[in-house]
Amino acid sequence: MEVEQLTFQTLGKRAILISWEEKIEKNILEEILQSKKIIEENYIELNVEVINTYNSLLINYGFSIENAYGEISVLKELLSNAKLDKKMTANKYVLPVCYEEQFALDMKGVCQKKNLTAEEFISLHTSSVYTLFFIGFLPGFLYLGGLPKTLQIPRKKTPRLNVKKGAVGIGEKQTGIYPQDSAGGWQLIGNCPVSLFDSSQNSSSPFLPGDELKFQSVSRKEHQEILRQVELGSYKIEKLKE
Q: Which H or E run contains 114?
C-alpha cells in the first residue's frame, strides 16, 4: 500500500486517525476495510477499537499513547508491507421497502424536482446494488453508497424532529435507513420493516461495512406481514441471488 498518499494524525492522547482521499468510492472502501482487518489482527493483544468511515480509520487505543510519532511509524510500516486483495468478497442481501405514500413523505416533491413518476423513482431506487460504507450516526444506521445519479438530491434544509423507525431516505449520493425513531434530515421515500439493530445480540447489526444490499418493493400488506414476522423472530433476511 502506498502510505505516502495517506494522512496520519493524533486525536487527543488515545487515538490516531488515518485518512484517505475524500471520495465515496468502493475501491477506497475496500482498501480501508482491508487495512482495518490488518490493524485489528496485528493489534489483537492491545484490544484496540478500529472504526471506519467513508475515507478514514479511527484507531482508539483505550490508553494514552506514550510515543505518538513512533506509533504512527509502526502503522505506516505495517500498512506499507501489507498485501491487499484486488477485490473483497461481499455478502449480498435483499431488503424489503414499502414505497406507499404514508411512508414516502418526500417522494412527491423529489419526483417533481427530478421530473419522474413515482413508478420511475421506485424502479431506479430498486435497480441499484448499494454498498454499505459504514454504520452510524445512530446505532445500526446504514450509510449506503451507489444511489443513481438521477435520484441524487440534497438533504432537507430543516430536519424533521421525528423520523419513524425503518424510514428509508436519500441525501446527496447516498441512501440510508433509520434503525429507530429519531430526528433526521434525509428525504424520506419509503419504509423498511426489517430490524437493523439489536443490542442483545453479539453482532448488534446484521450487516457489516462492505456488504451489498438491494431493495425490493413490497405492498403495505406485505410490509405488515414482515413486521409481524420480525416481532415473532421468524423473519430471515434474504440473500441476494447472483
A: helix 107-114
**Residues 84, 131: Cα–Cα separation, whole Å:** 19
Nearest to 149 by CA among 127, 176, 132: 127
Residue type, 57: L
Q: In which region does residue 172 sit, left (phi positive, over 0), alpha (psi from -120 to 50) or beta (all else)? A: left
Q: How far is CA 179 from CA 14, 32, 119, 123, 140, in A?
A: 30, 25, 26, 24, 6
pLDDT digits (tens, 9 = 90+) for 109-144: 999 999 999 999 999 999 999 999 988 877 888 999
3-state SS record for 119-172: HHHHHHHHHCEEEEEEECCCCCCEEEECCCHHHCECCCCCCEEEECCCEEEEEE
Class of domain 92-239 (CATH, top level): mainly beta
Query: What is the architecture, at CATH level 2, of domain 3-80?
Result: 2-Layer Sandwich (3.30)
Q: Are 106 and 191 in contact (CB under 8 A)?
A: no
CB 103 within 8 A of CB 215: no
Residue range 51-61: mean pLDDT, rounded: 92
For CA atoms 70, 72, 78, 80, give the dihedral sign. Answer: negative
Give tens-digit pLDDT for 69-93.
999 999 999 999 887 776 667 899 9
Domain boundaries, the chain: 3-80, 92-239
Helices and strands per DSSP (H, E), number in the chain: 5, 14
| Strand-by-strand arrangement of the 56-60 sheet | 7-11, 15-19, 56-60, 49-52
